[in-house]
Amino acid sequence: MPNEKPVWDIVDQKKPAFIELSDRVWDSPELQYREHACVGMHRQMLEAEGFRIVDRLAGIETAVMGEAGEGGPVIAILGEYDALPGLSQVAGLDEQKPVKPGGNGHGCGHNLLGAGALLAASAVKDFLAANNLPGRIRYYGCPAEEGGAAKTFMTRDGVFDDVDIALSWHPTAFSGIIPPLTLAVTMMDFHFKGRAAHAAVSPHLGRSALDAVELMSVGVNYLREHVPQDCRIHYAVLDSGGMAPNVVQAQARVRYSIRALTTPDMQALVERVKAVAEGAATMTGTGVEWNVVTAMSEVLDNPPLYALLHRNMMELGPTPFDDADREFARRMQATMTADDIEAAHLAAGVPRADAPLCDTIVPLETRGVPMLGSTDLGDVSWVVPFAQAGSATYAIGTPGHSWQLTAQGKSPAAHKGMVHVAKALAGTALDLFADDQLIETAKRDLSERLARTPYKSPLPEGLEPQVPA
Predict the structure, then answer these.
(1) N or C terminus: which one in the chain shows less Cβ crowding within 10 Å?
(2) Alpha carbons 23 and 410: distance in angstroms, whole number
(3) Per-residue model confidence (pLDDT) at position 76
(4) First to last CA, the chain
(5) E-assigned strand segments in 221-336
(6) What's the CA gap between 306 and 168, in Å, rounded?
(7) What is the dihedral of CA 67, 70, 73, 76, to 10 degrees?
């Protein structure tokens, strides 16, 4: 459809540079808190676009903010640029082939997320300046969403305290509002300490930390039967105590992610998991200590703001994919199972169709089968009215965090989805600047929710971001 809002024209004029930014970030996949090259690329773009820049937000080296405009309300658009381990993949190829065996890859589309968010903020900046309108637009470059929860630390340290409205988006299979239904989570390490001994000559003198880890796993498996059905508990053994079976393992470490629909329920479940760990230590004669690695709250709903963002998506209509986009998407779908494609439709709450790419906007109140994860955007939503869009950038059925998603991260379809949602975000921001009542309504909704359930950071006091070595 022809552009109907002037800011959409600005997005189109600017898109080549931001598509290039997205592709350069895709080419430099970096993990949590180590996104030095990627934050540098975003900072260079902020500088080139004339934003006022603040580095090292909340003391985090790879977090950056750019602001433009004067006076008026502050509207923030949040982006990300971290990658995932083990998901290196040649772009545009419909068979698994890593660029670098065992290397990192953008298997969640954050290369698109950050560039698209910055494109929207830049277009709003230009519109405000051209029309001499009051208001400040900010872009927040947020690292470490994948397991690091940087935005939770940024929220705790007051980074968003003077923001009036926050918006974001995420690459998805279906275009529409991402339902504000996520799980609060705490990630914890449990360190068991035992006593080494010769496993054949003097096993009675040993106390196996690995046994304690295994018994904790058994205990948590039994616990799963007696928790609310939306809770999730999963784990990874980080240190099994050594490679020699003839030595009783004197130490072992296991990491648990403990999730629930609300932060209080999650925190109650954490205490039960701790009790299981203590029981495993008692049974094995070992000691146990634990520490929180990170934590995130659930996303808080804001119906007025979500409705406004959805209205802008409806004004735009579906992303204008072409036959070449659909042909590539079908080739990617051939690498997936029928169950993958069915699950994608169920999650979106839309009937099964043959289209390989989303050709509609999912209605606002549609709710599919919950496929619940966690995001550090949750904590942002508790301190500032927040809404998030999903924009179709990959073939329906593509598993999240997969080589197939990485393979589609530089495709023309992905670029179109990124640019399209930038228009929706920019249009929503300008609607908010133009009508203070929209902002007040969103703020009132947040205040009423906080009156019932005040926000408390899920992070233990004194915890700092843990930057991997």
Answers:
(1) C
(2) 6
(3) 98
(4) 49
(5) 232-239, 251-260, 287-296
(6) 11
(7) -10
